[in-house]
Amino acid sequence: MKREITLEEYVEKLERKSRWDALRTAYENASRRKIRLVDPDPPKTLGSYILRLDYSAWFWTLIILTIATVGVVYASNILPALTLIRYLLGTVYVLFLPGYVLVEALYPGEEDLKPLERLALSIGLSLAVIPLIGLLLNYTPWGIRLDPLIMALTVYNTALGLIAAERKHGIVRRKLSTYPSL
Question: The DUF1616 domain covers which part of the protein (predicted)?
């Protein structure tokens, strides 16, 4: 059995012209599955998974976009100059994020879908989910107004984001059990 080497040792073996060329070659080999990159210290708990940005940058982007959108929506009532930003963030918040978190929850593996498929499904599923949320809100005492809609979308996006994080962490856990020496 071959001895596993670190990425740094592999890049040093590849260094011909420059370190950048060696890194690009290592990336291409990993993309073509000629080499397998394994995290020497993967997160063992959901909390450590969420706190490690190399695993959960998508989750923190979701949280930051949610906070920014809610903040800009309410701040634009006071500062009309934020109206354009409100429209841009609102469009992403309504037409992309609900479908994106659903796609991440349904297909947690990186290799499950190509990026273009993820984008198309995110937009398409958002167009399907938003009317359902509106339909549910219509039968509540609050109705379809700004505050209940923002609250419902925030709860939906955060809840599905946490479900997706748990499913993605499950994939990392299964890989960890595959390599018990790590």
Answer: 65-170
Q: What is the pLDDT of residues 139-162, one digit of tens each?
A: 999 999 999 999 999 999 999 999
Domain that holds residue 145: 46-178
pLDDT digits 0-9 by tens, 162-180: 999 999 999 988 876 665 4
- Whether this prediction's pTM lies above 0.90 is answered by no
Token pair of 88 as six digits: 């841009």
Q: What's the CA gap between 162 and 165, in Å, rounded?
A: 5
Strands (E), 14-100: none
* Distance from C-alpha of 171 to C-alpha of 5, rounded to nearest angstrom: 23
- Of 57, 157, 153, 41, nearest to 110 by C-alpha is 57
Please answer whether residues 176 and 44 qualify as being in contact, where contact means their C-beta atoms are separated by less than 8 angstroms: yes
Q: Are both 14 and 80 inside the same structural domain? A: no
Instruction: Give, in degrees to the nearest 5, the angle at Cα 178 between 167 and 7.
Output: 95
Same domain for 139 and 76, yes or no, is yes
